Amino acid sequence: MYDFTYTKPSSVADATKLLAADPDAKFISGGQTLLPALKHRLNKPTTVVDLTGIGEMRGIRREGNTLVIGALTKHVEVETSAEVKAAIPALAQMAAHIGDTQVRNRGTLGGSVSNNDPAADYPAAVLGLGATVVTSKREIPADEFFLGMFTTALETDELLVAIKFPIPEKAGYAKMRNPASRYVMAGAFVSKGPQGIRVAINGAGPCVFRQGEMEAALAGSWSPEAVAGVKQNPEGMNGDIHGSAEYRAHLVTVMAKRAVASAG
Amino acid sequence: MPQVTLSVNGKSHTVEIEGRTLLVELLREKLRLTGTHVGCDTSQCGACVVHIDGESVKACTTLAAMCEGASVTTIEGLARPDGTLHPMQEAFREYHALQCGFCTPGMVMSAVDLVQKHPEGLSEAEIREGLEGNLCRCTGYHNIVKAIAAAQDVMHGRRETIAAAAQ
Ligand SMILES: Cc1cc2nc3c(=O)[nH]c(=O)nc-3n(C[C@H](O)[C@H](O)[C@H](O)COP(=O)(O)OP(=O)(O)OC[C@H]3O[C@@H](n4cnc5c(N)ncnc54)[C@H](O)[C@@H]3O)c2cc1C
Ligand code: FES
Ligand code: FES
């Protein structure tokens, strides 16, 4: 790992000022993605800006029909939060199966969503629930946030501060994990609620995406059988040593079926 | 040079570090606490697991600078000062839960966190799932799982000693 300067601001304003002044600086939250990347020398930040001292980015609270979760919330906190379990149990269950205990003890919601790894879990929940991403500059609907592999609508000096999850009537998540890396091979987050019927697919393609045909099928009838007949086109799906594009496309239907079944 | 002040196994240390210094480097190279191992250095194997403020974390994937004011426990801090082993260590010995021993410090630290978080008790399947972040190349895990099952009974006061659990 190349050396860098370490700094720990205590407000969103101070953190974003540092990035605005130096585009080669980098934010760190849990470090569970950034540190492995720095060890590979994929990146050479001048300064690493530790966000964990920023109180404004913490906390889980219910505001009417919305669950607001601060960007610094660790996976373990979402997994065990009574508030999350009551409002969106599928989200708590999803967080409980990210990586392993030690990753969940440090990794954060904000880090995962701003990284937008195609094989990450949270992007599916954010898109599948039609959440809103609150940044240091604006509010971005999920449909406009995930732009491509490891790419989001965030600008370099823009911080992800919190995410507003509308509380659905029903929601479910299912994934097939790679047994070695624990990341997602293919997953589906489905929901029915204030944002309509949504099916978000992760792991299978280069970026999380909505499966329109499955959404239409579920609008006709909310049942695992409704999505069972929808085939995902393998074109554009990821193919690698862990699974071919055809296999991943097949998994999309299987995971969507399981997700609907778990949503009830 | 930047400094970090933290408590390790109950003792306060102020250590000079670089921005990039990892917690595991601070422990092994600065404090010479070499019980915490580096197996993969890619966040996969769990040989480096320690506790920060009671939570198990991978010390190879934690910046030392981010541990300012933290209370760290390593494998060296588990036994009592008089040398009496922690029930988890005792159970690993009693159940032959190690062969080469390389993964053992991380296994034990993860297992202690797992058991502490589940006072209601863990099933065999839950113990196996709880060890997701720890790899062992030798034992095939069976004896590790048995050791943890026994240790939880002692840690939660359901049995007096590991030897009693072994019978
Ligand atoms: C062994 C292992 C297994 C894993 N398995 C899974 C898995 O199964 N599923 C899964 O989803 N993930 C998995 N992960 C990744 C894990 O969930 C990470 O915690 C997460 O991807 C990143 O969160 P972080 O807080 O650690 O971010 P960091 O590593 O601190 O940061 C990641 C990136 O986001 C930026 N960033 C961080 N916070 C913010 C913010 N608030 N605003 C703007 N930018 C920000 C950083 O600059 C960096 O570029 C795994 C990781 C490991 C090491
Ligand atoms: S050395 Fe830290 S996880 Fe392997
Ligand atoms: S005992 Fe050798 S790696 Fe576990």
Features:
heterodimer; A: 264 residues; alpha+beta; Uridine Diphospho-n-acetylenolpyruvylglucosamine Reductase, domain 3; Enolase-like, domain 1; 2 domains; 5-stranded antiparallel β-sheet; 4-stranded antiparallel β-sheet; 11 helices; 14 strands; B: 167 residues; Ubiquitin-like (UB roll); DNA polymerase, domain 1; 5-stranded mixed β-sheet; globular; binds flavin-adenine dinucleotide; binds FE2/S2 (inorganic) cluster
Describe this structure in words.
Chain A has 264 residues and is an alpha+beta fold. Chain A folds into two domains: 5-166, Uridine Diphospho-n-acetylenolpyruvylglucosamine Reductase, domain 3; 170-263, Enolase-like, domain 1 (2-Layer Sandwich), CATH 3.30.390. Chain A has helices at 12-21, 34-39, 75-80, 82-87, 89-96, 101-104, 109-115, 122-128, 212-220, 224-228, 245-263, and strands at residues 5-7, 26-28, 47-50, 60-63, 66-70, 132-135, 139-141, 146-148, 151-152, 160-166, 170-177, 184-193, 196-202, 209-210. In chain A, the strands form four sheets. Chain A has a five-stranded antiparallel sheet. Chain A has a four-stranded antiparallel sheet with strand order 11-12-13-14, sandwiched between helices. In chain A, strand 13 (196-202) and strand 14 (209-210) form a beta hairpin. The N and C termini of chain A lie far apart (47 Å). The model of chain A has no long low-confidence stretch (mean pLDDT 97). Chain B is of the alpha+beta class and 167 residues long. Chain B folds into two domains: 3-77, Ubiquitin-like (UB roll), CATH 3.10.20.30; 87-166, [2Fe-2S]-binding domain (DNA polymerase, domain 1). In chain B, 34% of the residues lie in helices and 14% in strands. Chain B contains six helices and five strands; from the N terminus they run E-E-H-E-E-E-H-H-H-H-H. In chain B, strands 2-1-5-3-4 form a five-stranded mixed sheet, with helices on both faces. In chain B, helix 2 packs antiparallel against helix 5 and helix 3 packs across helix 5 (142-155). The N and C termini of chain B lie far apart (55 Å). Chains A and B meet through helix 2 and helix 6 of A and strand 4 and helix 3 of B. The structure holds flavin-adenine dinucleotide and FE2/S2 (inorganic) cluster (2 copies).
